[in-house]
Design brief:
The complex is a heterotetramer, with two copies of chain A (304 residues) and two copies of chain B (250 residues).
Chain A lengths: L5 E3 L2 E3 L3 E3 L22 E2 L16 E4 L2 E4 L8 H13 L5 E5 L4 H12 L4 E7 L10 H5 L1 H13 L5 E4 L7 H10 L4 E4 L3 E4 L1 E2 L4 E2 L5 E5 L4 H12 L6 E4 L5 H10 L3 E4 L2 H4 L3 H15 L5 H4 L7
Parallel strand pairs in A: 3-16, 4-7, 7-8, 8-9, 9-10, 10-15, 15-16
Antiparallel strand pairs in A: 1-2, 5-6, 6-14, 11-14, 12-13
Helix pairs in contact in A: 2-4, 4-5, 6-7, 7-9
Chain B lengths: L3 E13 L2 E7 L1 H6 L5 E4 L8 E4 L2 E3 L4 E7 L3 H7 L6 E8 L11 E7 L3 H13 L3 E8 L8 H7 L2 E5 L6 E2 L2 H4 L8 E5 L2 H10 L5 E4 L15 E3 L6 E3 L6 E3 L6
Parallel strand pairs in B: 8-9, 8-12, 9-10, 10-11, 12-13
Antiparallel strand pairs in B: 1-2, 1-7, 2-6, 3-4, 3-7, 5-6, 13-16, 14-15
Classes of the chains: A alpha/beta (304), B alpha/beta (250).
The structure holds flavin-adenine dinucleotide (2 copies), flavin mononucleotide (2 copies) and FE2/S2 (inorganic) cluster (2 copies).
The site of one flavin-adenine dinucleotide has 21 residues of chain B, from strand 4, strand 6 and helix 2.
Chain lengths: 304, 250, 304, 250
C-alpha cells in the first residue's frame, strides 16, 4: 500500500492534492463532477474584508501552455464566505484552507480574525502575491519587510496555522521565504502567478481589461520547480507546491523539488477531474519511481 | 452530476466562408441538451477549452450539431477534425432559453455566429406550435448560412452590413418590418445586443451572451457581467449564457 | 510599400528582425539554410575575456511551450571571435551586434574594448543577465547599482552604442531599465531567459547538469510583453524585444508593446528559417493591422 | 545549402515492445543521406525537434527507414503518425560513418536504439564487399529487433541483459567470441560505449553518440562533448554523431 497521507501544521491530509485558490471557487461547481471528499484539502477563493467586484472583463487570455487571469479578487467578503460557503465545504469533511487577501495590513488581520473564529477552517493561506489588484497584494509579496510584517500581525491575530503564498515576481525568492519564516509562518505556498500581458493585434490594446494578468499553467512549472528547490534548501517550514501541475508525474516532480503537498489550479479548467485523477494515479507513479509514500519522495530531488 | 464526455465527430463541412458545421455524437449530451446551452470543447495544444453553442439536437441519432467560425488557432484546429475522431466536451453547459410555451409568436434576432443557438431554439418553438420569425444579420454575402433552414421555420429576413445580400444594414434596421411577437430572443455581438434591446426595450426578450471563459462551469469568475450598479453580477458560463433582457448591464 | 527599416543608435536596419544571442552561434550554421544578408542584424553568441568551456551536459531540456538552457557562456573568447568569426559575418554586409559577458566589471570592460577596436562590429549588447554561470552575469542583472556601474564603465571604454540586456528575474524591471538608462545605455535588449528547473523523475535529480537553466520560447512571451510594455512607459531609449517570438504576428505584438526591433532565439531551433519567414511575412501582417511601416507600429499598444 | 523538408509517412509498425519502424519518403533526403546521419523531426506540440538515426536508405523508392523507441511524449506522438501524414525533418544531419573501403572485416556492436544506424552501415559495408559481424545488445527478449536482418549481413550475436534471449550479459561479454576485424563501429548508451572502447582499446573503431540537442545544426552548443582536457570539444550534432574512438572523452 502506498501511503498518501501528509501531516502538515494544522492539516492532516489523506492525500497531498488540493485545488488551488481561485481555480475552484468554493467547491460547489466541481462538486457536480465528483465527490469532494476525495480531495486532500480545498483552498478557497481569496477572501477580503469587504465584498469586491473585481476587474472588468475580459479577465482571462490564453497563452502558450498557459493562461493569464486578472479576476481582481472578486469575492463576497470573508463574512459571507464563512456563512454561505464554508458550511457547504465542511459537509465533505475535507480540510479547508482560507485564502486571505487585502489591501492593508489591517484588512489582512481582519480577514484572518474572522476565519479564526469560524468553524471548520483549518488553516490560512496568506495571499501576499496577487498581481491583479491596484494596491496591496503584490507589494506585500515583493518586499520582504512588508511580507514579514503582515505575516507577524496575522499570526498574532489567529491561532490557525499560516501558509504564506509567495509571489514569483521577485529577484530573490529565498529572501522572501526566509523573511516570512522568521516572522512565524507555519508553511509556504508557492508559487502564485507571474505577471504577464497579451496585446490584441486587432484592437491594438492589452487584451485583458486590467492590461496585465497573472500567468499560470504548464508554462510556469519550471519556474515553480526552481523556486521550490531553492527555497527548500534554505527554510525548514513545509511547502505547498503549485504552478502548472496537471498530472501525477507533475505532482511527483514538485515533491522531489521539496513540496510536501501540491495544489492544482489551471488544470481544473481543462480537466474538471484533474484533482481526483492525480490522486488516483499518484500511488502508481510513486511506486514506479521507487517510493512507498508521499513523504518518502519529499525533497528527494536534492543532492544528499 | 456534470459530465465530461467524448463525442465522436460524424461530419464536418464548410457551409460559408470560414464557417463550419460539425455533427458530434454522444448519447448523454444529445439527451441532456436544450437550446441555448453550449459545449466546452478541448482542442489539442490549447490550455483553455472553446465554448461553442448547440445549433441542433437530434435525440434519435444522439447527435449535436454545432456551427462555428474560424477565428484563431482553436477553431482552425477544430475545423480540421476528421469524422471518426473524438472530441472531449464538457456540457451541455449553462442554461438554455426559457420561455412561456403558450406564446403565439417569437422573434429570433441573430448576428453572425450568434445565429446557431437560435436555430436550435426555433426548431423547438415550432415543435411546440409557436410561430417563428427570424432576422439574421451577416457582415457580407459569403458569410450567410442557414437561410433556407430558417425559412423552413418561418418568415426570415436576411441583412448584410454591406448590402451584398438581402437587406442592407444591421439587424435592428429591419425589426420594424417583422410585425408583432410575444417574446424576442437575440444572440450576437454585444453592440448588436445593445442595439436590439434598446430598440425593443418595451418588449419581453431574452439575450444570449459571449465572453472569454476560463473554467466554463462557474468556478473562476472570468466571465462575469454586472447585473446592477451595486456590485451584483452574473456568470455568463453558468448563470447564462441566456439572460432576460434587462437582467444584466450590457 | 511597407517600410521595414529601423534606425537605432549605431544600427541602420533594413528590417527589425535579428537572431538572438546564443541561438545562432556566429551565423555559420544558419548560413547553410539561407543567405544571411536578408537579416536586419545578427547578434553574436556571448563573448568573454578568456575562452570558456561552459557547463557540463545535459545543457538543454524541453518545457511546455519552451525550453531550458544552461550552456554557460561557452565561447572561444572575444579575441578569437574577432579574428575568426566577425570577418565571416561581415561578408554578409549585415549589422553585427556583439554580446558582451563577464564575471567582473573588468572583464566586461576588456571585452567591450576589444570589440571597440574591431572592424565591422556595430553595437554591443551588454549581457548582464546570463543566469547560467556561477558568478557575474545574473548579479549584475538583478542589482540596479551594479548594472549601472558596469554600463557606465563599458560606455566609457567604447565608442560603440551599448544595448543593455535585462534579466526578467527581478522584482522591478522598470527600476533596472531606468538605472541603466541613467548610466548611459543607448538602448535596451529584453528579455533574457527566466531561471527554471526540471527534475528528472527517474534519476531523481535536476535534469540539467547545471541544475537550473534559463527558460525561453513561447512560454515566456507574455512576461516579455509585459516587461517591455512597462519599461516603454518609463524610459526613452529604444528597446530590442525578444522572448518567444516565432511569427510575424508575435513580432508585431512586440512592436505594439514598445520594442523598436526584435530578436528571435529559440524559434530558430524548430524552424531554421524563422527569421527570413518573419521578415517575409511582416509587411503583410503590418498592412493587415493598418500599419505602413515598422516605426508606425512601435508602442501603439499603449493608451494615447 | 542545408534543408528542412517535408517527408511523407509511408508506413509505421511496432517491431518490438514500444519500438517502431517508420518509413519516410523524400527525394532529397533519400539521395543525400549516408549511414550514421540522423533526421531532426518536428512533432506537434513540442518546442524541440527529435533526433532519430537513419536505419535504412532506399534510393530507388526515395525512402528512409527509422527505428525508434517510445520514450516520452515526442516519440509517442511520432509512433501515432499515420501513413500519408507529413513530417517536417531537418537533415540528413551530422556526419556519417567514415571507413577505409578496403578493409576486410567490420564489427558492429550496438545496444538498444543504438542499433539502427549500424544496420544502415552494415548494408553499405556489405555492398562494398566488406565482411560484417554484429553484436546486438538488448535489455530483454521482447525488445529484440532486426536480428534476422543482421543475420543476412553476417555472423550475428544477440545478448540480453537478463539472458531471456541469446547470450546473457552485455555486448562486451561476447566481444571475445567474434574473432578478428579491422575496424569496429559502436553505437548505444554511453556506459556501453565506454565499456566497448575500453575493451577494444587497441583496435581501430568508430562510435556514435547521443545527447540532448537544441538546434541540431551546430549553433547552440547544447550537445558538446570534451575532446581533451584543455577545453577542446566536439559538437555531437554537427561534428558527430560519429567520432573516432578516442577522439572524445566519454
Ligand atoms: C457561450 C458561448 C457560445 C459560443 N458559441 C459560438 C458558436 O456557436 N459559434 C462560434 O463560431 N463561436 C461561438 N462562440 C465564440 C467562440 O467560443 C470563439 O470564437 C472561440 O473560442 C475562438 O477560439 P479561437 O481559438 O479560434 O480564437 P482565439 O482568438 O485564438 O482564442 C483565444 C482565446 O480567446 C477566447 N475567445 C476568442 N474569441 C472569443 C469569443 N468571441 N467568445 C468567447 N471566447 C473567445 C478563446 O476561447 C480562447 O480562450 C461562443 C462563445 C461563448 C462564450
Ligand atoms: C544523434 C541521435 C540519434 C538518435 N537516434 C535514435 C534512434 O535511431 N532511435 C531512437 O529510438 N532514439 C534515437 N535517439 C534518441 C531519441 O532522440 C530520443 O529517444 C527522443 O528524442 C526522446 O524524445 P521523447 O519526446 O520521446 O522523450 P522525452 O524524454 O519526453 O524528451 C524530452 C527531451 O529530451 C530529449 N531526449 C530524451 N532522451 C534523449 C536521448 N536519449 N537522446 C537525445 N535526446 C533525448 C528529447 O529530444 C526532448 O528534447 C537519438 C538521439 C540522438 C542525439
Ligand atoms: C483564474 C485564477 C484565479 C486565481 N485566484 C487566486 C486567488 O484568489 N488567490 C490566490 O492566492 N491565488 C489565485 N490564483 C493563483 C493559483 O492559486 C495558483 O497559485 C496559480 O494559478 C499557479 O497554479 P496553476 O498553474 O496550477 O494554476 C488564481 C489563478 C487563476 C488561474
Ligand atoms: C541555447 C540558448 C543560448 C543562449 N545564449 C545566450 C547568450 O550567450 N547571451 C545572451 O545574452 N542570451 C543568450 N540566450 C538568450 C536569448 O538570446 C534570448 O534572450 C532568450 O532566449 C529569449 O528569446 P527566445 O524566447 O526567442 O529564445 C540564449 C538562449 C538560448 C535558448
Ligand atoms: S468561465 Fe469560469 S466562472 Fe465562467
Ligand atoms: S544541438 Fe545545438 S550545437 Fe548541437
Amino acid at each position: 500500500m502506498t501511503q498518501l497521507t501528509v501531516d502538515l501544521p494544522g492539516l492532516m491530509l489523506k492525500n497531498p492534492v488540493m485545488p488551488a485558490s481561485g481555480c475552484f471557487g468554493f467547491g460547489r461547481e466541481y462538486s457536480e463532477f465528483y465527490d469532494l471528499k476525495q480531495l486532500g484539502a480545498v483552498i478557497m477563493k481569496a477572501a477580503t474584508g469587504e465584498p469586491r467586484y473585481g476587474n472588468k472583463t475580459p479577465r482571462v487570455a490564453e497563452t502558450p501552455s498557459g493562461m493569464l487571469n486578472a479576476i481582481g479578487l472578486q469575492n463576497p467578503g470573508a463574512e459571507k464566505i464563512i456563512v454561505n460557503e464554508v458550511p457547504f465545504l465542511a459537509e465533505y469533511n475535507v480540510p479547508i484552507i482560507a485564502n486571505v487577501a487585502g489591501s492593508t495590513v489591517e484588512e489582512y488581520v481582519k480577514v484572518a480574525s474572522l476565519f479564526n473564529n469560524a468553524d471548520s477552517v483549518n488553516a490560512l493561506e496568506l495571499n501576499i502575491s496577487c498581481p491583479n489588484v491596484k494596491e496591496g497584494g503584490i507589494q506585500f509579496g515583493t518586499d520582504p519587510d512588508m511580507a514579514a510584517e503582515v505575516t507577524e500581525k496575522v499570526k498574532a491575530s489567529s491561532h490557525l496555522p499560516v501558509y504564506v503564498k509567495l509571489s514569483p515576481n521577485v529577484s530573490d525568492i529565498v529572501g522572501m521565504a526566509k523573511a516570512v519564516e522568521a516572522a512565524g509562518a507555519d508553511g509556504l505556498s508557492m508559487i502564485n502567478t507571474i505577471t504577464g500581458m497579451q496585446i490584441n493585434l486587432s484592437s491594438r490594446r492589452p487584451l485583458l481589461a486590467n492590461k496585465t494578468g497573472g500567468m499560470s499553467g504548464g508554462a510556469i512549472k519550471p519556474i515553480a520547480i526552481r523556486m521550490i528547490y531553492e527555497v527548500k534548501q534554505q527554510v525548514s517550514i513545509p511547502i505547498i507546491g503549485m504552478g502548472g501541475i496537471s498530472t501525477a508525474e507533475d505532482a511527483l516532480e514538485f515533491l522531489l523539488a521539496g513540496a510536501s503537498a501540491i495544489a492544482v489550479g489551471t488544470a481544473n479548467f481543462q480537466n474538471p477531474y484533474a484533482c481526483p485523477e492525480i490522486i488516483d494515479n499518484l500511488p502508481h507513479v510513486l511506486q514506479q519511481h521507487g517510493f512507498d509514500s508521499v513523504t518518502d519522495a519529499v525533497g528527494k530531488g536534492h543532492e544528499r | 452530476m456534470k459530465k465530461r464526455v467524448e463525442m465522436i465527430v460524424k461530419s464536418v463541412s464548410e457551409i460559408a466562408l470560414d464557417t463550419f458545421e460539425m455533427t458530434l455524437e454522444n448519447a448523454f449530451t444529445a439527451k441532456a441538451a436544450v437550446p441555448g446551452q453550449f459545449l466546452h470543447l478541448l482542442v489539442d495544444g490549447h490550455t483553455l477549452r472553446r465554448p461553442i453553442s448547440i445549433a441542433d439536437i437530434n435525440r434519435e441519432k444522439e447527435t449535436i450539431t454545432i456551427l462555428f467560425k474560424q477565428i484563431g488557432d482553436g477553431t482552425k484546429r477544430l475545423a480540421s477534425f476528421q469524422s471518426g475522431m473524438k472530441v472531449s466536451a464538457i456540457g451541455p453547459g449553462g442554461n438554455g432559453f426559457r420561455y412561456d410555451a403558450s406564446m403565439a409568436t417569437a422573434l429570433l434576432a441573430g448576428g453572425g455566429v450568434g445565429i446557431p443557438p437560435l436555430y436550435c431554439l426555433g426548431k423547438e418553438l415550432r415543435k411546440n406550435g409557436i410561430q417563428v420569425k427570424a432576422v439574421l444579420g451577416f457582415q457580407t454575402e459569403n458569410l450567410v448560412f442557414y437561410e433556407e433552414k430558417f425559412r423552413q421555420l418561418g418568415e426570415t429576413y436576411v441583412v448584410t452590413d454591406d448590402g451584398s445580400y438581402g437587406y442592407q444594414g444591421f439587424v435592428t434596421d429591419v425589426l420594424d418590418q417583422t410585425g408583432n411577437f410575444d417574446h424576442y430572443f437575440s444572440c450576437g455581438p454585444i453592440p448588436m445586443l445593445r442595439a436590439v434591446t434598446n430598440k425593443l426595450g418595451n418588449d419581453s426578450g431574452s439575450i444570449s451572451l459571449e465572453e472569454r471563459l476560463g473554467c466554463g462551469v462557474g468556478a473562476c469568475l472570468a466571465c462575469v457581467i454586472p447585473a446592477d450598479s451595486e456590485g451584483g453580477y452574473r456568470k455568463i458560463c453558468s448563470d447564462g449564457p441566456v439572460f432576460a433582457a434587462g437582467e444584466v448591464m450590457l
